[in-house]
Design brief:
The complex is a heterodimer of chains A (about 100) and B (about 375). Chain A is mainly β. Chain A has one domain (about 5-105): Rieske Iron-sulfur Protein. Chain A contains no helices and 9 strands. In chain A, the strands form 2 sheets. Chain A has a 6-stranded antiparallel sheet with strand order 1-9-8-4-3-2, with no helix packed on it. Chain A has a 3-stranded antiparallel sheet with strand order 5-6-7, with no helix packed on it. The longest helix of chain B is centred in the last third of the chain and has 15 residues, at about 290-305. Chain B has a single domain (about 10-335), classed as Aldolase class I (TIM Barrel, Alpha-Beta Barrel). Chain B has helices spanning about 40-55, 75-85, 115-120, 160-165, 175-185, 195-210, 230-240, 255-265, 290-305, 310-315, 325-335, and strands spanning about 20, 55-60, 90-95, 110, 130-135, 140, 170, 190-195, 215-220, 245-250, 270-275. In chain B, the strands form 2 sheets. Chain B has an 8-stranded parallel β-barrel, surrounded by 7 helices. In chain B, strands 6-7 form a two-stranded antiparallel ribbon. In chain B, about 30% of the residues lie in helices and about 10% in strands. Classes of the chains: A mainly beta (about 100), B alpha/beta (about 375). Strand 2 (about 20-25) of chain A pairs antiparallel with strand 4 of chain B.
Amino acid sequence: MAEFTKVTTVDKLPPGRGASVRIGATDVAVFNVGGVFHAIDGVCPHQGGLLGLGRLSGCVVKCPEHGMRFDVTTGTSPGAPPGGGLACKVFEVKVEGDDVMVSV
Amino acid sequence: MYFTDDSLLPENQDPLIITAAPYGPMWLPEDYPTDIDVSWDAQVQKAVDCYNAGATVLHIHVRDPQTGKISKNFNEYNDQIGRLRNAVPKMVLQVGGSISFAPPADGEMAQWQGYDTRHMLTEINPKPDQITVAVGTSQWDITSISSLQDWPDRMANEQTMWAFANMSVDALPDFYIEHLKRLKTAGIQPYFALGHIHGLEIVERLIRRGQYMGPVNGFFSMGGGGTCGVNPFDWMELVRRTPQGSIWTYQTMFRHSYPLAAMMIALGQHTRAGIEENLWDTTPGKRLTSVQMIEKHVRMAKELGRPVATAEEAREIMKLGVTYNSTEETLLALGLPPNRPAGERGFITYPDTTGKVASAYRAGSDGHALAGEY
């Protein structure tokens, strides 16, 4: 059974915003896309920028370091051909009351 | 740079400064298990090996031994800079500026707050000698001058190339003006990270407007796709446009690194070697380690008769510890014309000269004597 950790509260992460949090040794990027919360691996697979500090446009976040982009709902690069490739792991998110919780 | 008749002779060139870039933040240990160091000791030993091979500047990224990925922990950077300072005390320690730091503990949350987390680099203690400062936001498609065979198996697919092709480096005035101020306060020399000639133009404007005073050192990171590519005439134009008193390193991607290094060694410029931007020897499919790449640069310099800088020479050439206190002093030291005095027409020279060599004979527009006139 997945273990969830509280990472923030609903009021601290309004729609259109993201944040970087740590759960154990894992950096997690959590986002509010139109009221729905999503979480992906927080470290950009290019050179390790913190995706949670990137600017969110719709459901696409842009890494603050070198601009690599990811769809935060799927962890994949927007517009990329179908298949695997360089993707961020997607983490399960749930909201309990005001708490936003992530399972890594 | 202005080349005189004797500029290409090795005895007149500065000794070659080789920057080692051995930490490869783009790669994971599985991409090159024998040359990507994970433990603290191995990362330090790599610095020692690069120094012994001939590199005098160390371009630093810190890898977290727990995860094998690039560290986001500010304290780990402090600790590692300290270890490196002890292990290679003479080497110029240069921290790569594209880093931001995670909240230090569980339960804390970091959000976009301008560039505060990137500015934290200026607070590293013990302080490094240099921090790279990107100037000028640019598209940065690093796939444009490579083919799939250049990339590690993990990345050699269309999806990954698409992600890399769509990158853009964020380096706006909102970031670099404040960052330069903080570096000056911290006593850390900025190492300008530019992608093309327009980045260099921005640096000159920063100087002319009093937003940067001090020695100008840096590197051109030329990956194509929005930055300078691999057209040697573009490389030559960069060399031509860099101020006489500045020091530049030229770097590109994968096997292009070698023809670039050969040209820049011959032209009296400086080079960078390591797995951060290249995994290969000149032969397709043959790997080289960072140390082997440095050794190759040393051999190229030796064949051309150009000495390789000692660490003391590198510090002196790059004017580490030197500060300037005015725009005028900075422009003069760079060999750039002063700012235009109000109302003055024409191309500007320094006030105590006419800008021409005194001559008893008539000279043509290029300053040379006119035939038959003396």
